[in-house]
Design a protein that fits this description.
3 domains; 5 strands; 5-stranded mixed beta sheet; alpha/beta; Nucleotidyltransferase, domain 5
């Protein structure tokens, strides 16, 4: 139920408890903790079971979110043979190669785990990461012994770094973010709370700039519509006081929106290319292809 039907562990235990009332020779059902321990054993087996050694592995490496003093270094692997198969990629194509809790991560410790992963799969073709300082340093150590292994920067983080570099040179952007934060403080728990600007995340904020820019453009449209409306909102004066500053950023918002559209285009293109390749590989004469064509898919 948990693995195949997306049932929670507690719900699965409750369902089993219900069925034990109607099954002969059964007077007990496993509790939720039993199910959790079984799943942990399955996960431990999947992590430690032998992996197929091949020369077409690509690894994806990153840290999980901080949990107390720890975060986990995770290395996932995918075979290029799965990528090139005549079907879309599936979750089962990904293999967990390493899961190591770390109170402090360093290039040396990352290098140790990369070497441990080599013992499981052989030397990979490439390693993809966000090029955090410890991951980058670990790959530098790793490439000293394996210079043919490429270290690839993932597309989303690369875009975020380019946006950061571009916007850090724009003083207007910093002023806009400051004004948005002040507005949030001034409109929370007021009649204008529905116009609160979204907060930027403390981590990876340059991967989520579109929410703030879109808010600015939509709020400008609301301001313009309110000015010309016969039945203005009762707090129209408050609206102009708290959010009228956005009008001075109209050209900047248009410029930033275009910049974000340019940054998003490579990701959209890669997804479209992958979907097209998968559909083509499925075969135009297949039943699935004809069914999708009839539906307009």
């Amino acid at each position: 139920m948990v693995l195949s039907a997306a049932t929670s562990i507690r719900a699965a235990a409750a369902v089993l408890e219900l069925f034990t009332r109607y099954l002969p020779f059964t007077d007990q059902a496993p509790c939720a903790n039993s199910g959790r321990l079984w799943l942990l054993r399955v996960g431990l087996f999947r992590l430690n079971c032998p992996k197929e050694k091949a020369d077409d592995w690509v690894w994806l490496m990153d840290h999980t979110l901080q949990l107390g003093p720890y975060k986990c270094l995770i290395i996932l692997g995918i075979r290029l043979s799965a990528w090139e198969a005549d079907r879309p990629l599936a979750h089962q194509d990904m293999t967990l190669l390493n899961l190591t809790p770390m109170a402090q991560s360093s290039g040396e410790r990352v290098h140790e785990q990369l070497l441990a992963a080599v013992e499981k799969t052989g030397v990979p073709l490439a390693v993809v990461s966000d090029e955090g300082s410890d991951l980058k340093r670990g790959m530098e150590f790793f490439q000293q012994d394996h210079p043919a292994v490429r270290h690839q920067h993932d597309m989303k983080h690369k875009n975020a770094l380019l946006l950061k570099k571009e916007l850090s040179r724009d003083p207007c952007w910093g002023e806009f973010v400051t004004q948005a934060n002040r507005t949030k403080l001034g409109t929370t728990q007021t009649a204008l709370a529905f116009l609160n600007p979204p907060g930027l995340k403390s981590k990876a904020r340059y991967m989520n700039l579109d929410t703030l820019v879109n808010w600015g453009q939509r709020t400008l449209e609301y301001l313009d519509a309110s000015d010309g409306a016969a039945d203005r909102p009762a707090d129209h004066g408050k609206l102009k006081e708290k959010l009228g500053w956005l009008r001075s950023y109209r050209p900047a918002l248009k410029r930033w929106s275009e910049l974000l559209a340019v940054a998003a285009r490579p990701r959209a293109w890669s997804k479209e290319a992958f979907i097209l390749r998968s559909a083509t590989n499925c075969g135009r004469n297949s039943t699935g292809w004809r069914r999708r064509r009839r539906r307009g898919g």
